[in-house]
Amino acid sequence: LAKTTQPISMDSYEGQEVNITCSHNNIATNDYITWYQQFPSQGPRFIIQGYKTKVTNEVASLFIPADRKSSTLSLPRVSLSDTAVYYCLVRNGQNFVFGPGTRLSVLP
Amino acid sequence: NAGVTQTPKFQVLKTGQSMTLQCAQDMNHNSMYWYRQDPGMGLRLIYYSASEGTTDKGEVPNGYNVSRLNKREFSLRLESAAPSQTSVYFCASSEAIWGTGGFGTEAFFGQGTRLTVV
To answer: Which of A28, A80, A91, B43 is most open to solvent, judged by the fewest CB atoms within 10 Å of its CB?
Structure first.
C-alpha cells in the first residue's frame, strides 16, 4: 500500500517561495497525487492534484518527476495566511490516508 | 452553497453515553466519509460510504457505527462513548470514491465536530 513521507515542519518568511517535497515510493500506476491544506479548527481543503509533470493553478504548482516517486508542492510568495498544515496524499487501498503532514509557519 | 454541514460543532459526553454525529452534503456526491483527527496527527478514516446503500470500514472503525440515510446524509454513532474517542471528527464527500478508475477525485470536508468524552 502506498505511503507518503514529508517533512514534519518548515519555516518561511513572507514573500518567499516555499517548496514542500513528498516521497511516495510505492505509488500505483493509476494513482494521482493530491495536496490538501488545513487551517486550525477547520477541515482540510483541496489545493492541487496531478498525475505527472507539472500542474499549476491559481494557488500553487505541483511538480512530479517522470518516475512519480516524489512530488513537490510549490507555493509562490507566501503570506502569513499560508500558515497551515499541508498534506500529501496518494491512494491507500480504497481511500486516501492522511499522514501527519507538514506544518508550515510563515514568519513576518 | 453550504457544501458539507456537520452537527453539532461541539459536544461533551460522559463515558458510556451514546450520541450521533450528523453530516449532510448538498453537492449530490455519491461518496461520503467519516474521519477522526487527534492532536498532532493526520486524519484517520473511520467508515466510508462509496454510494447510497453501502458502507465499509476504514482504518479505525471499532466503537463506531454509521448509517447512510440517503444520498445527502451520513451519520456516525457512538454507542458507548469512551475517553479514547475524544477527538475532532470530520465528515467529507466526493463525487466518486477516491481513486476509482484511476481518476483523482477532490473531497470536500465539513468544519468538524469537537467531541470530548469525560
So the answer is: A80
